[in-house]
Amino acid sequence: MTIPQLNKSGPLKFFYEQFEDHLSMDDYFQFFSNRKKADTYTFLISDIFSAEKMATVLLEEYSIRGKLSGNVIVTFPQPDFNVPIFTFQLGGNANKSIALLDISPTLPDIDYGPLIPTFEKYKKLLGMEPTKLDWVKSICSPFLLHCQYDVLDIVSVVKQMEQLSI
Hints:
By secondary structure, this protein is of the alpha+beta class. It is built from four helices and seven strands, in the order H-E-E-E-E-E-E-H-H-E-H. A seven-stranded antiparallel sheet has the order 1-2-3-4-5-6-7, with helices on one face. A hairpin with a 3-residue loop joins strand 3 (54-64) and strand 4 (68-77). The longest helix is centred in the C-terminal third of the chain and has 12 residues, at 154-165. The chain is globular, with a radius of gyration of 17 Å.
């Protein structure tokens, strides 16, 4: 059986263009799961790397019954670095979008104050309202940008992500 490769387009393409040279293959792991039932196809492809200061870099592509698809990027810092956990998800279909961008503190002494203007700028540019889901509020930071099953301009999100990194 041939193991599929991640479709390096959209957010994953951007991530690879920016960071591929920093990903270590020394402890690389790929997970692939799929299910085909009648006319539906569900799959998950996960590529898991490490990088300098990062214990885990998780890149995923998924499709659920051929109706929803998307990408997930999560980075977990090594314990000795005062760096937040970064979580990004972008997916959906033509009518509904799922978008989540968050930085989660790992240590209490990280000062996120300098990020507030950037957070407010992108929250306004992307038109994202605060989440109304209690479970999301309980696991995410106050700097969460979130869109759950609503219409979202995905091209704009990717463009803003590119500008944020410059």
